[in-house]
Amino acid sequence: MVGFVLVSHSRALAEATQKLIHAMSGEEVPVAIAAGAGQDHEELGTDAVEISGAITPLSANEGIVVMMDMGSAVLSTEMALDFLEEDIRKKVRLCPWSFVEGSVIGGVVARTGGNMEDVIREASLSLNQKTEHLSGGLPEKPEAGNTISNEKDLSVTLVVRIPHGLHARPASQLVRLASGFHSNIQIQDLTTHKGPVSVKSITGVMTLEVLYGHEVEIVASGDDASEALEKIKQAFEEGLGDTLVSEQDITGNKDISIQQPEEDETKPMGVSGGIVIAPLYFPAQFSYSFPEEQVEDIEKENERLDT
Questions:
Q1: Active-site residue 167, yes or no?
Q2: Which residue of the set 167, 182, 193, 214 is catalytic?
């Protein structure tokens, strides 16, 4: 497996990035840290000797990708290479791409068996999803007949019931699962007409921005296509590591019954059968008493109230 060394001016940033990698890819991915300066690494800075010391223990891995945050981190890492034995130095690649996103994406690729070239390539695309999202606009709807399958392909259409869609964690789970099969597997968002992209590419899946309730088509071709689709369908049905929301909520069933409060009940009443995101307010409870009075002249009483 490919290992990683995180070189950052900030120890806290490197440790948080390491935590993200392991959260997305599992503890099996080897990740070392060379970050911060000073005795307790609390100062900002990098150290070439520390970097070389972090690289060497990972030399038993297939390769070592070094992720650097900026500026002197690159210079320190290049200097650290001079301290390494030649056989170790040949295994090291310096990755020029985004420190956080590239590291997390690279970890997913390494966990699925990707080599150093695969890691570097996917890391180079790690900002695509953010760039496309913030640049605005969806791709044009494909022309009729422009599909990702042919008669020999197998496909399955699924409704995404994961509350936040295919965000980083379920997307990485999907990529790890798909990478275990030989077949060519692609996914397309039928709701937004984004795709198709390879299910084995974490950056590709992320750029689709599949949300809760979207309908996706997954197409596979190859000797284990049937098994692949069966496993992927099962994984979607189990939430890909996330908690699912019922299909009734997705379809927007209008027959959701609302429980009416008791006559003397002053507690809040539920009005939505789905997910609501809003500020939470706690209503104050008051007790009112109104005097009973017999009104004989209604017109005079109305005039009194008006004044």
A1: yes
A2: 167
Distance CA 181, CA 191 (A): 26
Written as one letter, the residue type at 17 is: T
Rounded CA-CA distance 299/302 in Å is: 5
- Could you tell me the two tokens for 5? 């060394």
Mean pLDDT for 85-92 is 95
Between 206 and 36, residue with greater pLDDT: 36
Which residue do the tokens 């590291």 mark? 103
pLDDT (tens digit per residue) in 124-163: 888 877 787 787 644 444 443 344 555 568 999 999 988 8
Position with higher pLDDT, 29 vs 138: 29
Report the first-to-last Cα separation within the chain, whole angstroms.
84
- Check: CB of residue 7 under 8 Å from CB of residue 15: no
Phi-psi region of 261 (alpha: psi -120 to 50; beta: other; left: phi over 0): beta
- Signed CA dihedral, 265, 267, 268, 270: sign only: negative
Residues in the chain: 307
- pLDDT tens column, 188-236: 999 999 889 999 988 888 888 898 889 999 999 999 999 999 999 999 9
Q: How far apart are CA 2 and CA 118, in angstroms?
A: 10
Contact at 8 Å (CB) between 194 and 138?
yes
Distance CA 72, CA 83 (A): 17
The whole model's pTM is what? 0.60
Burial of 233 (0-12, 13-18, 19+ CB in 10 A): middle
- Strand order of the β-sheet with 194-198 is 154-159, 215-221, 184-189, 194-198
As a whole number of angstroms, the distance between CA 13 and CA 103 comes to 12
